[in-house]
Design brief:
Helix content: 40-55%
Strand order of the largest sheet: 2-1-3-4-5-6
Strand content: 5-15%
Number of helices: 16
Structural class: alpha/beta
Number of strands: 12
Order of helices and strands: EHHEHEHEHHEHEEHEHEHEHHEHEHHH
Length: 353
């Protein structure tokens, strides 16, 4: 008799990359096991469901329910799982301290201690760990004997290619923050406009907090006179239409071991939109782009190098469209969340019976 599963996932708050992964990743596992999906991750929302899933006294052959979570949990969330179920699988798709370092965010000693304690609770408490890439798992110090790799992905049914624009444009999607290469991308497109005068830039930026909103406000103010630049968020259901306004989609991420270790969710949404990708030479992102033959990688992180790669791509519309078609094929065949979820379910169920 198969084990019962409780799947903890993100609800409909699909604003940016992490939300999307937390929503989709274990859907394949839920389907395969007929698992109970719960989007209320408060301790008061977890415990009653676990009690419902407990074997009855006469079901002596049944074992406590297995639990999979698409994000790491607090001690209060973890407590009912440990008491009433089996902490089986957790997705560790980012590392707060590494990301803070990449973004230049200072972490106080008390906050760092709390983050490390929460990380240790989940890494030690769950049997299996899921990571978005092997390099990320190594950088974050995950136990390789207990780690399963499941890459980031896209919903290729939600993000669809649209009509190619009549005016050349570069698109970029991100949470609004310094050290994401935004200013360097603006300068790169400004340089490229010397060769392609009607080139536009669409910055699809979302504020992720108060500091992010303040940064976004400053950026919008600084660029207010640049009529060839548009700035604004996009709900996920409308993202495909927004990305289709671009000829090339950019990932200008600067050098840092954290950014080198994983391909961001936006890369695969770009693929789904059927547009070629321009990326700086971040190792995992460049690898995926090269393997799919879905874009170009600049020689370094400078605006001049990005501009040169961009101009070369725009100079050959047929080649840009060929690489965009390759990107779409990769999104459908390899990086759709449904494909990733089914493969991950196979990996998990081969280890846990």
């Amino acid at each position: 008799m198969s084990r019962r599963w409780l799947i903890l996932r993100e609800g409909d708050r699909r604003r940016w990359g992490g939300d999307l992964r937390r929503h989709y990743l274990f859907d394949g596992l839920a389907e395969r096991t007929h698992g109970r999906v719960v989007e209320d991750r408060r301790p008061g929302g977890i415990a009653p469901v676990l009690r419902e899933l407990q074997p009855r006294r006469w079901q002596v052959w049944r074992k406590p329910p297995l639990v999979a979570s698409t994000e790491i949990l607090t001690d209060k969330q973890f407590a009912p799982i440990e008491r009433l179920g089996v902490p089986a699988v957790v997705d560790i798709h980012d590392d707060t301290l590494l990301q803070n370092d990449a973004l230049g965010i200072a972490t106080g000693a008390d906050d760092e201690a709390a983050i490390r304690a929460k990380d240790a609770l989940n890494r030690d408490g769950f049997r299996w760990l899921i990571a978005p890439s092997a390099p990320f798992a190594a950088l974050a110090g995950l136990d390789p004997a207990r780690t399963i790799v499941a890459p980031n992905g896209t919903d290729s049914a939600a993000v669809q290619p649209g009509r190619w624009p009549d005016t050349p444009a570069v698109g970029f999607v991100a949470g609004a923050a310094p050290r994401r290469g935004i200013e360097e991308l603006v300068e790169a497109v400004r340089i490229a406009r010397d060769t392609v005068p009607d080139l536009r830039l669409d910055l699809v930026l979302a504020a992720t907090g108060d500091h992010s909103q303040a940064y976004l406000d400053r950026l919008a103010s600084n660029l207010a006179g640049e009529e060839w630049i548009s700035i604004g968020p996009s709900p996920y259901p409308e993202l495909g239409a927004r990305l289709s306004k671009a000829t090339v989609l950019a990932i200008p991420t600067p050098a840092h071991p954290y950014w080198d270790s994983v391909s961001p969710v936006k890369l695969f949404d770009y693929f789904a939109a059927g547009r070629p990708v321009l990326t700086t030479p971040r190792i995992e992102t460049a690898r995926v782009v090269w393997e799919a033959d879905a874009g170009v990688v600049s020689s370094d992180d400078s605006p001049e190098s990005m501009a040169a790669a961009l101009v070369d791509l725009l100079a050959s519309p047929d080649e840009a469209r060929r690489r965009g078609a390759n990107a779409r094929a990769a999104a459908e065949n390899d990086y759709d969340w449904r494909v990733i979820g089914r493969r991950l379910a196979d990996e998990i169920l081969a280890r846990i019976r």
